[in-house]
Here is the input.
Amino acid sequence: MGMGSPLRRRLLLSLALLLLATACAAAAAKPRLSTNYYRHSCPRAERIVADVIAAKQRANPSTAAGTLRLFFHDCFVGGCDASVLVSPLSSPSTAPERAADINLSLPGDAFDAVARAKAALEAACPGVVSCADALALAARDLVAALGGPRFAVALGRRDSARSDARDVEVNLPRTNMSARAMARLFARKGLSPREMVALAGAHTVGFSHCAEFAHRIYGYRGAPGEAHDPRLNPEFARALQRSCAGYKDDPTVSIFNDVVTPRVFDEAYYKNLPRGLGLLASDAALWEYPPTRVFAERYAANRTAFFEDFAAAMQRLGAVGVKTGRQGVVRRRCDALD
Ligand code: HEM
Ligand SMILES: *[C@@H]1O[C@H](CO)[C@@H](O)[C@H](O)[C@H]1NC(C)=O
Ligand SMILES: *[C@@H]1O[C@H](CO)[C@@H](O)[C@H](O)[C@H]1NC(C)=O
Ligand SMILES: *[C@@H]1O[C@H](CO)[C@@H](O)[C@H](O)[C@H]1NC(C)=O
Here is the structure.
Protein backbone atom coordinates (compact mmCIF):
# COMPACT_ATOMS: atom_id res chain seq x y z
CA MET A 1 0.00 0.00 0.00
CA GLY A 2 1.37 3.36 -1.00
CA MET A 3 1.29 6.58 1.01
CA GLY A 4 -1.67 7.86 -0.93
CA SER A 5 -4.07 4.98 -0.16
CA PRO A 6 -7.53 6.22 0.80
CA LEU A 7 -7.53 4.34 4.09
CA ARG A 8 -4.22 5.76 5.18
CA ARG A 9 -5.26 9.23 4.10
CA ARG A 10 -8.46 8.97 6.08
CA LEU A 11 -6.52 7.85 9.14
CA LEU A 12 -4.13 10.77 8.79
CA LEU A 13 -7.04 13.11 8.30
CA SER A 14 -8.87 11.96 11.41
CA LEU A 15 -5.65 12.15 13.39
CA ALA A 16 -5.18 15.72 12.19
CA LEU A 17 -8.77 16.56 13.08
CA LEU A 18 -8.34 15.05 16.49
CA LEU A 19 -5.21 17.12 17.10
CA LEU A 20 -6.98 20.21 15.85
CA ALA A 21 -9.96 19.57 18.10
CA THR A 22 -7.68 19.06 21.10
CA ALA A 23 -5.85 22.26 20.31
CA CYS A 24 -9.14 24.14 19.99
CA ALA A 25 -10.43 22.72 23.27
CA ALA A 26 -7.22 23.78 24.98
CA ALA A 27 -7.51 27.23 23.42
CA ALA A 28 -11.15 27.51 24.47
CA ALA A 29 -10.27 26.46 27.99
CA LYS A 30 -7.45 28.95 28.28
CA PRO A 31 -7.86 31.81 25.83
CA ARG A 32 -5.01 34.23 26.09
CA LEU A 33 -4.92 37.98 25.94
CA SER A 34 -3.43 39.29 22.70
CA THR A 35 -2.36 42.68 21.46
CA ASN A 36 -4.46 42.37 18.30
CA TYR A 37 -7.62 41.08 20.00
CA TYR A 38 -9.85 43.82 18.50
CA ARG A 39 -8.13 43.86 15.09
CA HIS A 40 -11.35 42.89 13.30
CA SER A 41 -14.07 43.79 15.81
CA CYS A 42 -12.84 47.30 16.68
CA PRO A 43 -9.62 48.12 14.84
CA ARG A 44 -9.48 51.72 16.07
CA ALA A 45 -9.99 50.83 19.76
CA GLU A 46 -6.50 51.84 20.95
CA ARG A 47 -6.61 55.10 18.98
CA ILE A 48 -10.05 55.95 20.34
CA VAL A 49 -8.95 55.43 23.94
CA ALA A 50 -5.70 57.33 23.36
CA ASP A 51 -7.48 60.41 22.00
CA VAL A 52 -10.10 60.56 24.75
CA ILE A 53 -7.55 59.98 27.50
CA ALA A 54 -5.10 62.58 26.17
CA ALA A 55 -7.85 65.21 26.15
CA LYS A 56 -8.98 64.27 29.66
CA GLN A 57 -5.41 64.43 30.99
CA ARG A 58 -4.90 67.87 29.43
CA ALA A 59 -8.06 69.12 31.13
CA ASN A 60 -7.44 67.39 34.50
CA PRO A 61 -3.76 66.58 35.14
CA SER A 62 -4.57 64.51 38.22
CA THR A 63 -6.24 61.95 35.96
CA ALA A 64 -3.03 60.03 35.27
CA ALA A 65 -2.05 59.05 38.80
CA GLY A 66 -5.63 58.30 39.75
CA THR A 67 -6.13 56.02 36.77
CA LEU A 68 -2.89 54.16 37.41
CA ARG A 69 -4.00 53.48 40.97
CA LEU A 70 -7.44 52.45 39.78
CA PHE A 71 -5.88 49.88 37.45
CA PHE A 72 -3.83 48.44 40.32
CA HIS A 73 -6.87 48.16 42.57
CA ASP A 74 -8.94 46.63 39.80
CA CYS A 75 -6.37 43.92 39.13
CA PHE A 76 -5.75 43.08 42.79
CA VAL A 77 -9.40 42.68 43.72
CA GLY A 78 -10.81 39.77 41.73
CA GLY A 79 -8.55 40.29 38.72
CA CYS A 80 -8.44 43.02 36.05
CA ASP A 81 -12.17 42.93 35.33
CA ALA A 82 -13.44 46.49 35.84
CA SER A 83 -15.14 45.51 39.12
CA VAL A 84 -13.55 48.58 40.73
CA LEU A 85 -15.48 50.88 38.38
CA VAL A 86 -18.97 50.03 39.60
CA SER A 87 -20.51 53.02 41.33
CA PRO A 88 -22.41 52.66 44.61
CA LEU A 89 -24.84 55.15 43.03
CA SER A 90 -25.78 52.60 40.36
CA SER A 91 -27.63 50.73 43.17
CA PRO A 92 -26.09 47.29 42.71
CA SER A 93 -27.57 44.55 44.88
CA THR A 94 -24.47 44.44 47.12
CA ALA A 95 -22.20 47.35 48.07
CA PRO A 96 -19.53 47.41 45.32
CA GLU A 97 -15.75 47.55 45.80
CA ARG A 98 -15.74 51.27 45.43
CA ALA A 99 -17.85 51.68 48.56
CA ALA A 100 -15.07 50.10 50.65
CA ASP A 101 -12.02 51.32 48.81
CA ILE A 102 -10.48 53.72 51.29
CA ASN A 103 -13.95 55.09 51.65
CA LEU A 104 -14.26 56.44 48.13
CA SER A 105 -10.90 58.21 48.18
CA LEU A 106 -10.54 56.78 44.69
CA PRO A 107 -10.25 59.76 42.40
CA GLY A 108 -13.23 60.93 40.40
CA ASP A 109 -11.27 62.07 37.37
CA ALA A 110 -9.98 58.55 36.80
CA PHE A 111 -13.49 57.10 36.74
CA ASP A 112 -14.57 59.88 34.42
CA ALA A 113 -11.63 59.19 32.09
CA VAL A 114 -12.60 55.54 31.69
CA ALA A 115 -16.29 56.42 31.32
CA ARG A 116 -15.43 58.80 28.48
CA ALA A 117 -13.19 56.26 26.77
CA LYS A 118 -15.93 53.66 27.04
CA ALA A 119 -18.56 56.03 25.65
CA ALA A 120 -16.37 56.68 22.61
CA LEU A 121 -15.73 52.95 22.17
CA GLU A 122 -19.46 52.19 22.38
CA ALA A 123 -20.16 54.80 19.73
CA ALA A 124 -17.64 53.19 17.36
CA CYS A 125 -18.09 49.48 18.18
CA PRO A 126 -21.10 48.85 20.43
CA GLY A 127 -20.76 46.05 22.97
CA VAL A 128 -17.28 45.02 21.86
CA VAL A 129 -14.52 46.52 23.98
CA SER A 130 -14.58 45.70 27.68
CA CYS A 131 -14.26 48.26 30.46
CA ALA A 132 -11.33 46.25 31.82
CA ASP A 133 -9.44 46.69 28.54
CA ALA A 134 -10.35 50.38 28.38
CA LEU A 135 -8.87 50.85 31.87
CA ALA A 136 -5.71 48.89 31.00
CA LEU A 137 -5.16 51.01 27.87
CA ALA A 138 -5.88 54.25 29.71
CA ALA A 139 -3.38 53.42 32.46
CA ARG A 140 -0.72 52.58 29.85
CA ASP A 141 -1.30 55.79 27.90
CA LEU A 142 -1.19 57.94 31.02
CA VAL A 143 2.09 56.50 32.28
CA ALA A 144 3.61 57.47 28.92
CA ALA A 145 1.98 60.91 29.09
CA LEU A 146 3.79 61.62 32.38
CA GLY A 147 7.15 60.69 30.85
CA GLY A 148 7.19 57.02 31.81
CA PRO A 149 7.77 53.99 29.60
CA ARG A 150 5.41 53.01 26.82
CA PHE A 151 4.54 49.34 26.43
CA ALA A 152 2.18 47.03 24.59
CA VAL A 153 -1.07 46.06 26.30
CA ALA A 154 -2.48 42.62 25.61
CA LEU A 155 -6.28 42.75 25.26
CA GLY A 156 -9.30 40.51 25.55
CA ARG A 157 -10.18 40.96 29.23
CA ARG A 158 -13.86 40.51 30.01
CA ASP A 159 -15.71 42.47 32.64
CA SER A 160 -16.97 41.16 35.93
CA ALA A 161 -20.69 40.81 36.50
CA ARG A 162 -20.15 41.38 40.22
CA SER A 163 -18.38 43.82 42.50
CA ASP A 164 -18.37 43.31 46.25
CA ALA A 165 -16.99 45.67 48.87
CA ARG A 166 -16.13 42.69 51.05
CA ASP A 167 -13.43 41.60 48.57
CA VAL A 168 -11.38 44.76 49.03
CA GLU A 169 -9.88 44.55 52.50
CA VAL A 170 -8.03 41.23 52.14
CA ASN A 171 -6.68 41.92 48.66
CA LEU A 172 -5.13 45.38 48.85
CA PRO A 173 -1.87 46.25 50.59
CA ARG A 174 -2.07 48.70 53.46
CA THR A 175 0.51 51.25 54.46
CA ASN A 176 1.11 49.61 57.84
CA MET A 177 2.15 46.28 56.31
CA SER A 178 5.73 45.12 56.52
CA ALA A 179 7.57 44.68 53.23
CA ARG A 180 7.51 40.94 53.88
CA ALA A 181 3.72 40.97 54.27
CA MET A 182 3.35 43.05 51.11
CA ALA A 183 5.59 40.63 49.23
CA ARG A 184 3.36 37.76 50.39
CA LEU A 185 0.29 39.59 49.14
CA PHE A 186 1.90 40.27 45.75
CA ALA A 187 3.05 36.64 45.57
CA ARG A 188 -0.57 35.58 45.92
CA LYS A 189 -1.20 37.50 42.70
CA GLY A 190 1.76 35.80 41.04
CA LEU A 191 4.02 38.85 41.31
CA SER A 192 7.61 38.70 42.54
CA PRO A 193 9.30 41.07 45.02
CA ARG A 194 11.10 42.60 42.06
CA GLU A 195 7.79 43.24 40.27
CA MET A 196 6.31 44.65 43.46
CA VAL A 197 9.15 47.14 43.92
CA ALA A 198 8.96 48.17 40.27
CA LEU A 199 5.19 48.70 40.51
CA ALA A 200 5.51 50.66 43.75
CA GLY A 201 7.51 53.13 41.65
CA ALA A 202 4.06 54.36 40.57
CA HIS A 203 4.29 56.46 43.74
CA THR A 204 6.57 58.74 41.73
CA VAL A 205 3.32 60.52 40.80
CA GLY A 206 0.06 61.44 42.48
CA PHE A 207 -0.70 62.20 46.07
CA SER A 208 -1.80 60.75 49.39
CA HIS A 209 -4.28 62.09 51.88
CA CYS A 210 -2.82 63.14 55.24
CA ALA A 211 -4.77 60.41 57.05
CA GLU A 212 -2.62 57.83 55.24
CA PHE A 213 0.58 58.96 56.98
CA ALA A 214 -0.62 61.10 59.93
CA HIS A 215 0.57 58.45 62.37
CA ARG A 216 4.12 59.06 61.10
CA ILE A 217 4.12 62.78 61.82
CA TYR A 218 2.00 63.30 64.93
CA GLY A 219 2.61 61.44 68.19
CA TYR A 220 4.56 58.65 66.52
CA ARG A 221 4.25 55.38 68.47
CA GLY A 222 2.45 57.10 71.34
CA ALA A 223 5.19 59.68 71.88
CA PRO A 224 3.93 63.20 72.63
CA GLY A 225 2.92 65.89 70.16
CA GLU A 226 5.25 66.49 67.28
CA ALA A 227 7.17 63.21 67.54
CA HIS A 228 7.62 61.87 64.01
CA ASP A 229 8.77 58.61 62.50
CA PRO A 230 12.59 58.83 62.77
CA ARG A 231 12.86 57.39 59.26
CA LEU A 232 11.42 60.64 57.93
CA ASN A 233 13.77 63.47 57.06
CA PRO A 234 13.18 65.95 59.97
CA GLU A 235 12.66 68.96 57.71
CA PHE A 236 10.26 67.00 55.53
CA ALA A 237 8.40 65.82 58.65
CA ARG A 238 7.99 69.40 59.87
CA ALA A 239 6.73 70.52 56.47
CA LEU A 240 4.22 67.67 56.50
CA GLN A 241 3.08 68.59 60.01
CA ARG A 242 2.36 72.12 58.84
CA SER A 243 0.61 71.09 55.61
CA CYS A 244 -1.54 68.48 57.31
CA ALA A 245 -2.35 70.55 60.42
CA GLY A 246 -6.06 70.82 59.54
CA TYR A 247 -6.56 67.41 57.99
CA LYS A 248 -9.12 66.25 60.54
CA ASP A 249 -11.40 69.15 59.68
CA ASP A 250 -10.59 68.95 56.00
CA PRO A 251 -9.84 65.31 55.11
CA THR A 252 -9.19 66.25 51.47
CA VAL A 253 -5.77 67.77 52.28
CA SER A 254 -3.20 65.72 50.38
CA ILE A 255 0.54 65.69 49.71
CA PHE A 256 2.50 64.70 46.62
CA ASN A 257 3.88 61.17 46.85
CA ASP A 258 7.13 62.35 45.27
CA VAL A 259 7.91 65.81 46.59
CA VAL A 260 10.89 66.25 44.27
CA THR A 261 9.29 65.75 40.82
CA PRO A 262 5.60 65.19 41.64
CA ARG A 263 4.23 65.30 38.11
CA VAL A 264 6.92 63.37 36.30
CA PHE A 265 7.10 59.62 35.98
CA ASP A 266 10.76 59.05 36.82
CA GLU A 267 13.00 57.17 39.28
CA ALA A 268 12.87 59.95 41.92
CA TYR A 269 10.59 57.83 44.13
CA TYR A 270 13.48 55.43 44.79
CA LYS A 271 16.04 58.20 45.24
CA ASN A 272 13.76 59.72 47.89
CA LEU A 273 13.68 56.60 50.06
CA PRO A 274 17.22 56.73 51.55
CA ARG A 275 16.78 60.47 52.12
CA GLY A 276 13.72 59.99 54.35
CA LEU A 277 11.42 61.43 51.70
CA GLY A 278 9.26 58.36 51.24
CA LEU A 279 5.78 59.57 52.20
CA LEU A 280 4.03 56.37 53.24
CA ALA A 281 5.26 53.92 55.86
CA SER A 282 4.98 51.23 53.17
CA ASP A 283 7.41 53.20 50.98
CA ALA A 284 9.95 53.40 53.82
CA ALA A 285 9.45 49.68 54.47
CA LEU A 286 10.58 48.72 50.96
CA TRP A 287 13.95 50.33 51.67
CA GLU A 288 14.46 48.51 54.97
CA TYR A 289 13.87 44.96 53.86
CA PRO A 290 16.94 43.63 52.00
CA PRO A 291 14.99 41.48 49.48
CA THR A 292 13.12 44.57 48.26
CA ARG A 293 15.83 47.13 48.88
CA VAL A 294 18.15 45.60 46.27
CA PHE A 295 15.64 46.51 43.59
CA ALA A 296 14.91 49.96 45.00
CA GLU A 297 18.66 50.65 44.94
CA ARG A 298 18.95 49.43 41.38
CA TYR A 299 16.07 51.59 40.17
CA ALA A 300 17.32 54.65 42.07
CA ALA A 301 20.59 54.37 40.18
CA ASN A 302 19.24 53.43 36.77
CA ARG A 303 16.12 54.86 35.19
CA THR A 304 16.35 52.50 32.22
CA ALA A 305 16.30 49.50 34.54
CA PHE A 306 13.24 50.94 36.32
CA PHE A 307 11.37 51.68 33.10
CA GLU A 308 12.07 48.23 31.65
CA ASP A 309 10.97 46.46 34.82
CA PHE A 310 7.97 48.72 35.36
CA ALA A 311 6.71 48.08 31.84
CA ALA A 312 7.13 44.32 32.21
CA ALA A 313 5.52 44.34 35.66
CA MET A 314 2.54 46.35 34.36
CA GLN A 315 2.01 43.71 31.68
CA ARG A 316 2.07 41.00 34.35
CA LEU A 317 -0.23 43.03 36.62
CA GLY A 318 -2.61 43.41 33.68
CA ALA A 319 -2.92 39.64 33.38
CA VAL A 320 -3.78 38.97 37.03
CA GLY A 321 -7.01 36.97 37.33
CA VAL A 322 -8.30 38.06 33.93
CA LYS A 323 -11.57 36.68 32.61
CA THR A 324 -11.39 35.62 28.96
CA GLY A 325 -13.40 33.75 26.35
CA ARG A 326 -16.83 32.93 27.76
CA GLN A 327 -16.02 34.13 31.25
CA GLY A 328 -17.43 37.45 32.36
CA VAL A 329 -19.27 39.91 30.15
CA VAL A 330 -18.67 43.08 28.14
CA ARG A 331 -20.54 45.70 30.12
CA ARG A 332 -22.27 48.51 28.26
CA ARG A 333 -21.47 50.96 31.02
CA CYS A 334 -18.43 50.82 33.27
CA ASP A 335 -20.09 52.30 36.33
CA ALA A 336 -22.98 49.83 36.47
CA LEU A 337 -23.36 46.05 36.37
CA ASP A 338 -26.33 46.01 33.99
C1 HEM B 1 2.97 48.25 47.57
C2 HEM B 1 1.93 48.57 48.30
C3 HEM B 1 1.12 49.82 48.10
C4 HEM B 1 0.53 50.53 49.09
C5 HEM B 1 0.54 50.19 50.58
C6 HEM B 1 -0.11 51.66 48.50
C7 HEM B 1 -0.84 52.61 49.18
C8 HEM B 1 -1.27 53.81 48.66
C9 HEM B 1 -1.94 54.85 49.39
C10 HEM B 1 -2.33 54.76 50.86
C11 HEM B 1 -2.13 55.90 48.56
C12 HEM B 1 -2.80 57.22 48.89
C13 HEM B 1 -4.25 57.19 48.48
C14 HEM B 1 -4.99 58.45 48.85
O1 HEM B 1 -4.73 59.01 49.91
O2 HEM B 1 -5.85 58.89 48.07
C15 HEM B 1 -1.59 55.51 47.28
C16 HEM B 1 -1.60 56.32 46.17
C17 HEM B 1 -1.22 55.90 44.92
N1 HEM B 1 -0.84 54.62 44.59
FE1 HEM B 1 -0.32 53.15 45.86
N2 HEM B 1 0.10 51.63 47.15
C18 HEM B 1 0.83 50.52 46.85
C19 HEM B 1 1.20 50.10 45.59
C20 HEM B 1 0.83 50.75 44.43
C21 HEM B 1 0.96 50.19 43.10
C22 HEM B 1 1.48 48.80 42.78
C23 HEM B 1 0.52 51.13 42.23
C24 HEM B 1 0.37 51.09 40.72
C25 HEM B 1 1.05 50.31 39.92
C26 HEM B 1 0.14 52.28 43.01
C27 HEM B 1 -0.28 53.49 42.50
C28 HEM B 1 -0.61 54.58 43.25
C29 HEM B 1 -0.81 55.91 42.68
C30 HEM B 1 -0.59 56.31 41.24
C31 HEM B 1 -1.21 56.73 43.73
C32 HEM B 1 -1.60 58.21 43.64
C33 HEM B 1 -3.08 58.29 43.38
C34 HEM B 1 -3.61 59.68 43.11
O3 HEM B 1 -2.85 60.64 43.02
O4 HEM B 1 -4.84 59.81 42.95
N3 HEM B 1 0.32 52.00 44.33
N4 HEM B 1 -1.09 54.24 47.36
C1 LIG C 1 -17.19 57.69 54.05
O1 LIG C 1 -16.81 58.85 54.77
C2 LIG C 1 -17.80 59.84 54.87
C3 LIG C 1 -17.24 61.02 55.61
O2 LIG C 1 -15.89 61.19 55.34
C4 LIG C 1 -19.01 59.27 55.60
O3 LIG C 1 -20.03 60.26 55.62
C5 LIG C 1 -19.50 58.03 54.86
O4 LIG C 1 -20.54 57.44 55.59
C6 LIG C 1 -18.40 57.02 54.67
N1 LIG C 1 -18.86 55.93 53.82
C7 LIG C 1 -18.58 54.67 54.05
C8 LIG C 1 -19.12 53.69 53.08
O5 LIG C 1 -17.91 54.30 55.01
C1 LIG D 1 -3.17 48.06 59.89
O1 LIG D 1 -4.22 48.94 60.14
C2 LIG D 1 -5.50 48.35 60.16
C3 LIG D 1 -6.53 49.44 60.38
O2 LIG D 1 -6.21 50.58 59.71
C4 LIG D 1 -5.56 47.31 61.25
O3 LIG D 1 -6.83 46.67 61.19
C5 LIG D 1 -4.46 46.29 61.05
O4 LIG D 1 -4.46 45.38 62.14
C6 LIG D 1 -3.11 46.96 60.94
N1 LIG D 1 -2.14 45.97 60.57
C7 LIG D 1 -0.93 45.91 61.12
C8 LIG D 1 -0.01 44.86 60.59
O5 LIG D 1 -0.57 46.67 61.98
C1 LIG E 1 20.90 50.21 33.46
O1 LIG E 1 19.97 49.18 33.20
C2 LIG E 1 19.96 48.75 31.87
C3 LIG E 1 18.78 47.81 31.70
O2 LIG E 1 18.77 46.82 32.65
C4 LIG E 1 21.29 48.11 31.55
O3 LIG E 1 21.30 47.66 30.22
C5 LIG E 1 22.39 49.13 31.77
O4 LIG E 1 23.64 48.51 31.60
C6 LIG E 1 22.30 49.72 33.16
N1 LIG E 1 23.23 50.84 33.27
C7 LIG E 1 24.13 50.91 34.22
C8 LIG E 1 24.99 52.13 34.21
O5 LIG E 1 24.27 50.05 35.09
About this structure: Residues 210 and 254 are 6 Å apart (CA to CA).
